[in-house]
Design goal:
Order of helices and strands: EHEHEEHEHEEHHHHHEEHHEEHEEHH
Strand content: 15-25%
Number of helices: 14
Mean pLDDT: 96
Largest sheet: 7 strands, parallel
Bound molecules: manganese (II) ion
Shape: globular
Strand order of the largest sheet: 1-7-6-5-2-3-4
Number of strands: 13
Low-confidence stretches: none
Length: about 350
């Protein structure tokens, strides 16, 4: 695997001749997944490449405004699946965005992408990336994949001529992944990238409004219910968590993305260092973990919840009914008492 962060002089020649390129991002795509993918999609398309942008499943409605969103193909629809299967056959470069291993595509799309025979490139900021790619452009210090895509585009585009629609997409990735710049991952370089996006015509107020001021009444009522009835605080463990059942979600006409950010409310309780959202999803429970300081939720997610992510934000799953998943979570909390009370 060639590390393109240290050998960036290799990047321009990868894109010298027109190629057929497949872009993919992770399951349950978020603002960074879709924003970084579309930012790169627009740039590569304008350079003359033939590009397919693919996600395993649908993105939340708060991303519908993104320029070029109609180009994103989703694997869980019959038409999307056909187009993605075709792209896997004909493309000569596969770029993985915002995930660290093909498992994050879900089983069916993972199996398909494993049949791909061309060159592969990983652009990502999650911990412990897979090392079987042809090229890697990876940094766990980047606030977001969108930030890495900005740096990457700056190398392949002469004169750093980033388009306004690309700037809007990349900013959406940065603002969502940094929690509007409040997470420690937002660095001086992140803010320099944002300055570059502003110079490219970014309207940050419009992006913010599109993403954060478009709550449905159902989502706000679900949040109200969660805060009043579903938030449990364990002060002796500096921990807070939320359990959401399928029935809870149904009661408020849940749509994908509606519980986005709920776990941060648990983390915002005074004294809380570790927060978890457990959400029933079919036969499994999705786990979102957040922490403050040096408490490493990536390793907790890997150790107990078949997942991973970043130092302060990670996710995973438990193949259990919700009540048992809650029990397992509480055992993890008890087991890690010294970690939770010393950080
Ligand atoms: Mn990300």
């Amino acid at each position: 695997m060639k590390d393109l962060r240290s050998e960036s002089h290799l990047i321009p020649e990868i894109f010298e001749l027109p190629r057929r390129i497949l872009l993919t991002t992770h399951k349950s795509p978020d603002g960074d997944a879709i924003g970084s993918m579309l930012g790169l999609f627009h740039t590569l398309t304008e350079m003359g490449h033939t590009v397919t942008a693919a996600a395993p499943d649908n993105f939340p409605a708060f991303l519908n405004w993104m320029p070029g969103i109609e180009n994103v193909r989703t694997f869980d629809t019959p038409e999307g699946r056909i187009e993605i299967e075709h792209a896997v056959q004909v493309s000569d470069l596969h770029i993985s965005l915002d995930y660290n291993a093909l498992q994050r595509l879900g089983e069916a799309m993972q199996q398909l992408c494993e049949t791909f025979t061309g060159e592969s490139l990983l652009i990502d900021h999650h911990r412990e990336p897979c090392t079987t790619y042809t090229y890697s452009y990876h940094s766990i210090d980047a606030s977001s994949t969108a930030e890495l895509v900005y740096d990457f585009i700056s190398i392949i585009l002469p004169g750093h001529a980033i388009r306004t629609d690309v700037a809007q997409c990349l900013y959406a990735g940065i603002v969502t992944d940094t929690g509007s710049f409040r997470f420690p991952s937002a660095s001086a370089h992140t803010l320099r990238v944002v300055a570059g996006l502003k110079e490219a015509g970014l309207n940050h107020a419009e992006v913010y409004n599109n993403i954060f001021d478009t709550n449905s009444l159902d989502r706000l009522r679900l949040l109200g219910y969660v805060l009043s009835s579903k938030l449990t605080v364990l002060p002796e463990f500096n921990t807070a968590y939320i359990c959401l059942s399928a029935a809870d979600l149904e009661r408020f006409q849940y749509k994908p993305g509606d519980s986005e950010g709920f776990v941060n409310y648990a983390l915002s309780v005074e004294g809380v260092q570790f927060a978890c959202l457990l959400k029933e999803n079919g036969s499994e429970v999705r786990i979102s973990l957040r922490s403050k300081g040096q408490l490493d939720v990536n390793s907790l997610a890997r150790q107990y919840f078949s997942g991973g992510g970043h130092l302060n934000a990670a996710g995973g799953r438990l193949p259990l009914p919700l009540a048992q998943a809650e029990q397992t979570f509480l055992e993890v909390v008890h087991h890690n008492r010294s970690l939770l009370t010393n950080s």
